[in-house]
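Researcher: Sequence of cAMP receptor protein follows. Predict its structure.
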Amino acid sequence: MPASTPAPPGLHTALASDEWFSACDPALQAELLRLARMRHLVPGEPLFARGGEADGLCAVVAGALRIGALNAEGHNALLAYLEPYQWFGEISLIDGRPRTHDAVADGPTQVLVVPREALLAWLDTHPAMWRELARLACRKLRVLFIAVEELAQLPLEERVWRRLQLVARGYGSRDAPRRRIRLSQELLAQMLGVSRQSINKALKALEAGGRLRLHYGEIELPAPSENPGSPAPAGPAAG
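Model: Prediction complete. Tokens:
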């Protein structure tokens, strides 16, 4: 079990950089912080495993988490790369079923965990707040629709570009995207289900076209004003 401590004071402002949390009813915001515990993970340590018991709603506070699982061939399949201050875990919170994927620390990582039973007890007395959890689940569903559509229709180079845009925007959690992404080519390959060599080739083609810059351990996305010829990232799926 990862070490845990109470949520530190002053965390509310940082969490409010997430679109979902900032739009939540203030009563729910306050209760999430009151109930939360901070878990401290060392590199490679799992927060939870696929099939594990649903233990709460979570938010990355520092570091990053790799969300994924082994595929049928025994290779790592990466679903998402979560950074501060992204919330997750709402699916198991809502349906009470086991975790759908593994969550593993990518470097030293801190995660805020709101215990499931305590949060459910509060929601029983504040049923209107379930709408807020539904908003979080719907945001993830829209991202899934986009990813499935792109997988079926776009060439790899464009899929790489749009996935980087998605990561930079925190899967819809940030209005202003990050300019620099610390995502290795190996993890990006796992995310898109292709070889590292294919990712390297696609990234170099994107760099040659002026759509990004490659640095050691980082990928830099130019500001829109520096990259006028680039198409906008995919918008929300219909629904």
